[in-house]
Amino acid sequence: VSRPQEQEPDARDLSVDRDYFQEQVWPRLARRVPAFESLRPRGAWAGFYDQNVFDGSAVLGPHPRLENLFVAAGFSGRGLQHAPAAGRALAELLLRGRFLSLDLRRLGWARLSAGEPLREAAR
């Protein structure tokens, strides 16, 4: 349940809006999954979301202008899932000078520099 854009809180305010959750989100959860009716959250948190706003895909590899800077960022909430593969890919790049296990060049900076977003078919 997302608010209309004009009702979104200031992104710098990381307080949790418990009323919105209780009044808007919880009733919809309980209707969809009746077991939620008897459950109640114990805590909540808010934080920033790492997202590559250019195309929503990760940026992985050496920076095009800053020597010896390698980046693994912008996983858009999938960082934990992709961390083992991204770590291995960066290790291969650092130690061998290229990707060995998977060719992940398409996640590099070239697409950003060329203005060519990487689009996922499943989105």
TrEMBL record:
SUPFAM superfamilies: FAD/NAD(P)-binding domain. One of its GO terms (biological process) is mitochondrial respiratory chain complex I assembly. One of its GO terms (cellular component) is mitochondrion. Keywords: Oxidoreductase. Pfam families: DAO. Residues 13-93 form the FAD dependent oxidoreductase domain. InterPro entries: FAD-dep_OxRdtase, FAD/NAD-bd_sf. Required for the assembly of the mitochondrial membrane respiratory chain NADH dehydrogenase (Complex I). Involved in mid-late stages of complex I assembly. PANTHER family: FAD-DEPENDENT OXIDOREDUCTASE DOMAIN-CONTAINING PROTEIN 1 (PTHR13847:SF287), SARCOSINE DEHYDROGENASE-RELATED (PTHR13847). This is FAD-dependent oxidoreductase domain-containing protein 1. It comes from Nyctiprogne leucopyga. The gene is Foxred1.
